[in-house]
Amino acid sequence: MDYKIDVTLNDVDNTLNGFEIINYTNNSPDTLWFIWFHLWPNAYKNDRTALSEQLLQLGRTDFYFSSDEQRGYINRLDFKVDGVTATLEDHPLYIDITKVILPEGLAPGKTIKITTPFHEKIPFNFSRGGHVGNTYQITQWFPKPAVYDIHGWHAFPYLDQGEFYSEFGNFNVQITVPKDYVVAATGELQNEDEQKWLKE
After folding, report:
1. Is residue 96 a contact partner of residue 49, using CB atoms and an 8 Å limit?
2. pLDDT of residue 39
3. pLDDT-flagged residues of the chain (< 70)
């Protein structure tokens, strides 16, 4: 799987605006008719998510009683598969997972191009990521296909405790932030002027 993502941080309203291109190859022996996508920022959308329920079970009520301003979400999605608008179906239990119906079956070994814009309101850092003032810990922030393996689809919600299971892939990511921010991330920084600024 190859990702190309272009994203911009707005530190006034604590949002990300991005566009994602995924070249998705079906490495399974099965024809795929849909792909489950994680929309994990929606775990912070309201107090009825799996994340909220787990935090309550752990004795934490800070998120449950948080304000709308402190919460987060992902929206403005417009999934296209090889240029054709795809239909979405809600997951029956979790608002941070959606089913992208493919316009036609994806045979084993074949590749499709999936694109979508996205907008994320970054939550306060309640768990594993978010913002505290003007510092940002950005995690699980883009629409991400669930893993399909020998056991089928692994479409599970975002939780405070537990591990994520995601596909490996190549990532080409362009991140635009206000001038005085430093981005710490995996990968290789490509901008020579930024490399020089960091050394200084």
Report:
1. yes
2. 98
3. none
Residue type, 98: T
Handedness of CA 156, 161, 162, 163 (dihedral sign): positive
Distance CA 181, CA 195 (A): 13
Confidence at residue 94, expressed as pLDDT on a 0 to 100 scale: 97
Is the overall model pTM greater than 0.90, yes or no?
Answer: yes
Whole-angstrom Cα distance, residue 140 to residue 164? Answer: 9
Q: What is the pLDDT of residues 78-136, one digit of tens each?
A: 999 999 999 999 999 999 999 999 999 999 999 999 999 999 999 999 998 999 988 99
- Token duo for residue 118: 């996205």
The per-residue DSSP string of the chain comes to -EEEEEEEEETTTTEEEEEEEEEEE--SSS-EEEEEEE-GGGGGSSTTSHHHHHHHHTT--TTTT--GGG--EEE----EETTEEPEEEE-SS-TTEEEEEEEEEE-TT-EEEEEEEEEEEPPBSSSSSEEETTEEE--S-S-EEPEEETTEEE-----SSS-------EEEEEEE--TT-----SS----HHHHHHHH-
Instruction: Name the token pair of 117.
Output: 């814009």
Query: What pLDDT score was predicted for residue 188?
Result: 82
Can you give the pLDDT at residue 131? 96
Residue 141 CA to residue 125 CA, distance in Å, equals 13
